[in-house]
Design goal:
Two copies of one chain form a homodimer.
Chain A: E1 3-7, E2 11-17, E3 20-21, E4 25-27, H1 29-37, E5 43-51, H2 56-63, E6 67-68, E7 72-75, E8 82-87, E9 94-100, E10 120-123, H3 128-136, E11 144-148, H4 151-156, H5 158-165, E12 170-174, H6 175-182, H7 187-196, E13 201-205, E14 211-215, E15 218-222, H8 236-251, H9 256-273, H10 280-283, H11 287-301
Parallel strand pairs in A: 1-5, 1-10, 2-8, 5-6, 5-7, 10-11, 11-12, 12-13
Antiparallel strand pairs in A: 2-3, 2-4, 8-9, 13-14, 14-15
Helix pairs in contact in A: 1-8, 3-5, 6-7, 8-9, 9-11
InterPro entries (chains A, B): PfkB_dom (IPR011611), Ribokinase-like (IPR029056)
Organism (chains A, B): Flavobacterium lacus
Pfam family, one (chains A, B): PfkB
Chain lengths: ~300, ~300
C-alpha cells in the first residue's frame, strides 16, 4: 500500500453559521485532510502538534480510521491551536473571531521514520518554513508533493512561500489567492504565472463554483455539486485536498488524466463535508455514498455531442 | 428546416470596459440571439423594432446570415433603443449609464405569418406583455418556448412575468435573478420553486462560473470556458440563449440529454462573444472554430473514473 504523509493543524474550531453555532469541536487542516484521504486504500500519517487539553477521543477518531498519529506531538502543559469564525449569510465569506496559535507557535514537525519515504506528501496550510522542514526530512524523493497555502502567508512570509513552491508538484489555492500571488486577474494567466514559480500543476479552488486544474495549456474543471443547503463550509478546502492527495496516493498515477479524477474525488468528498458542522459528516460517511455521488458528478458534467 | 422565432431588442449599445470604449454600435438581445443561432441549420426570424436612424448595413448583417428581418419594424421618424454601460475592472458588474427606450416604448410585436408556426420560440429579454403578445400570435403550439428575462421585470412587472412564465418550457436567468424570483439562496431550492411557476426546465446562468440546467431532480452543469482575457461581456447571455435555442431548433429533440448539449453549445458560443467588443467576434466567427472549441469543452469537463 502506498504511503501518504500529511502535515497540518489538528485543532479546536468554534463555528457560527446562519444555522447555528458550536462550542470547541474537532478541526484543523490535517484532520480534514486525513479523514478525507482515509476513504482510499493508503497508509497515511499525520504530522502535527496539539496541547495537553486535546481529548484522547479526538485522537482515537483518527487512529480508528487507520491514520498513524505517532507524528502528532502532544505538548505537556500546552494548549491546542484554536480558531473561531463566523460565516456571513451567503456562507461564501467569514470573519475570523479568534486565532490562538498556542502550541502551533513553536511547532517543529517530526516526520515518523516509517513515513520518510512516503509516496505522496500533502503539505496542509501552515507556515512555509514548517512545510519546508517536512520536505527536508524526507529520505526519498516523493512521487508527488502537494502544497496548500493561503493569503496570510503571501502577506507575511512570501519569500518562504516561494521557497517551498519551488519544491512542490501541485499547489492548491483559491481564486483570490491565485490572483494575489500572480498579480493577474484572469485565472488562466494567474495559473501560467504560478507555473513559473515551481508547481507543474495548479489547482484553483472556487468554492461553490468548483475547481480548475491547470497543467501548461491543459485545463480541467470540476464543478462543486449543487446542494440544497450548505451547512458549514469549514474544512471543505482541506477535505478537497485530502480527496485529491488520497486518490493520487492510492492510484500512484500522476498523469493529467488521473489528476482529473483526483479533483473529481476532491470535489466529491468536499460536497459531503459541508453538509454538517465540522467533521461530523465526514465521520459518518460511508464509501457507498461516495460512489453514489460519483455517479451524480458524471450526470452533472458528462455530455455526448456528435461533431458533424 | 425547422423554424426559430426570436423576439427581442435590436439596438445601439455604447460600451466602456477597462480595455476601451465604443461609440454607438450594433447591439440588442435579438441581435446577439440571432447571430448565435445562425450557426445552426435553422430558418430564423427576428421580431423587433428600430428607428429610422438604424443603419441599413446593420440590418444587412442580419439578412446576410439568412435571418428573416421582415418582422423588424422600422418606425418612421423614430429613434432606436439605446443602451450604454460601463463595466467595472473585474468585468463581472457594470453600471448602466444611459437607457433610452425610444421606439421600444410603444413596441407592438408583429410575428410574420410564415413564423406563426415556428418550432422553437426564443423570447429575448423584454417586457413580459410583449413576450405574451408574441405567444398569442402563434397559430400552432411551438415544440419549445424559451424565456429570457431580468430583475428589472421582477421589480416592475412581476405579475405579468408570472403570466408569461406559465406559458414557457424553459427559463434562462442569472443566479441573482433566480434568487430574487424564488426568495431562495440555494440555487437548487431556487430552481425547484421556479419549476412550480411554470418552466419545466430552468437554466441558471452564472457568467464566468458557467450555467446550470435543472429539470426536476436532474441537474447538468456547463462551465464557462476559462479565457485568458474577457474583453466585453455584453451580449454573452443572449449569445448563450441563441446557441441554446438554435441548437434545439436544429436538432428538434427536447430530451434532457439534448438540453445538455444545447447548454454546452450556448456556453461555447458565449465564450467567443466576450472576446471582442459587441457583436464583432460573432460576425467573424467560423463554424470550424465552434467545433474546435467543442473539443476544448470536452477536454475541460470529461473524465473517466472506474467505479470499484
Amino acid at each position: 500500500m502506498n504511503k501518504l504523509l500529511i502535515v497540518g493543524t489538528v485543532a479546536f474550531d468554534a463555528i457560527e453559521t446562519p444555522f447555528g453555532k458550536t462550542d470547541k469541536i474537532l478541526g484543523g487542516a490535517a484532520t480534514f485532510i486525513g479523514l478525507s484521504a482515509s476513504f482510499f486504500n493508503v497508509k497515511s500519517a499525520i504530522v502535527s502538534v496539539v496541547g495537553e487539553d486535546f481529548p484522547q477521543e479526538y485522537l482515537d477518531l483518527l487512529s480508528d480510521r487507520d491514520i498513524d498519529i505517532s507524528g502528532i506531538e502532544i505538548v505537556k502543559g500546552g494548549k491546542t491551536f484554536f480558531w473561531s469564525g463566523r460565516y456571513h449569510n451567503d456562507l461564501n465569506s467569514r470573519d475570523t473571531l479568534v486565532t490562538e496559535l498556542n502550541v502551533l507557535a513553536d511547532f517543529q514537525p517530526k516526520v515518523p521514520v516509517e513515513y520518510k519515504d512516503s509516496d505522496v506528501v500533502m503539505l496542509g496550510n501552515l507556515h512555509p518554513m514548517v512545510q519546508i522542514s517536512v520536505l527536508d526530512q524526507m529520505t526519498a524523493k516523493p512521487k508527488l508533493v502537494v502544497l496548500d497555502t493561503m493569503n496570510f502567508w503571501m502577506d507575511c512570509a512570501l519569500a518562504e512561500l516561494h521557497e517551498v513552491m519551488k519544491r512542490v508538484d501541485v499547489i492548491t489555492i483559491n481564486d483570490e489567492e491565485a490572483r494575489q500571488l500572480s498579480g493577474e486577474y484572469s485565472l488562466v494567466k494567474a495559473a501560467a504565472k504560478i507555473h513559473t514559480m515551481g508547481p507543474k500543476y495548479v489547482v484553483i479552488k472556487k468554492g461553490e463554483h468548483g475547481a480548475l486544474l491547470f497543467q501548461g495549456k491543459e485545463i480541467f474543471f470540476a464543478p462543486a455539486l449543487p446542494l440544497e443547503e450548505v451547512f458549514d463550509p469549514t474544512g471543505a478546502g482541506d477535505t478537497f485536498a485530502g480527496g485529491f492527495s488520497g486518490f493520487i496516493a492510492q492510484s500512484e498515477n500522476i498523469s493529467f488524466g488521473n489528476m482529473k479524477n483526483a479533483i473529481i474525488y476532491g470535489s466529491n468528498l468536499a460536497s459531503f463535508c459541508v453538509e454538517k458542522f465540522g467533521t461530523e459528516r465526514m465521520l459518518d460517511l460511508e464509501k457507498e455514498e461516495v460512489y453514489d455521488r460519483l455517479k451524480q458528478f458524471r450526470e452533472l458534467t458528462q455530455f455526448d455531442i456528435e461533431l458533424e
